[in-house]
Amino acid sequence: MLKIKSVLAGLLLSLFASLAIAASNPLSVHVLNLQDGLPSAGVEVRLEKQDDMQWTLLNKGVTNEQGRISALYPEGKPLEKGIYRVTFQTGKWFKEHQSTTFFPEIPVVFEVDGKLPHYHIPLLISPYGFSSYRGN
User: Fold this and answer.
1) Which of 79, 65, 66 is nearest to 27 (CA)?
2) Could you tell me the residue range of the domain that residue 23 belongs to?
3) Per-residue confidence of the chain (136 residues) as pLDDT tens digits?
4) Angle at CA 30, nearest 5°, toward 89 and 20?
5) For the chain, which has fewer Cβ within 10 Å, the N-terminal or C-terminal residue?
6) What CATH number did the domain enclosing 74 receive?
């Protein structure tokens, strides 16, 4: 019984640590597949910032089982005003799920104006269409 309590305590501490990291990170993404209404786990995502008309890679990640990356911005770096691009590698994801798609990747370009402490970029995908918006 003590062993089970220790394992559960460890899992809870891990969960709370993950939530604390997510809460302090200024950028998150979420991918949902409209075809089946489920989260899209395993989508590769890149974050870049535009500087003098050039894109600089800041970070990359892969969506979890809920289709989320809760902390995409580099840890320990303050969020700067500017133009950013989040690129979702949808072609690879659809291929891995035995489906064709018209969009091999979906770039979402957005501006950070410094008015919000957190930016959330949701992406709704299907093989031949997509939608994104500023979430919260």
Assistant:
1) 79
2) 2-132
3) 555 555 444 444 444 444 444 458 999 999 999 999 999 999 999 999 999 999 999 999 999 999 999 999 999 898 999 999 999 999 999 999 999 999 999 999 999 998 999 999 999 999 999 999 999 8
4) 120
5) N
6) 2.60.40.180
Q: 10 near 2, Cβ under 8 Å?
A: no
> What is the count of structural domains for the chain?
1
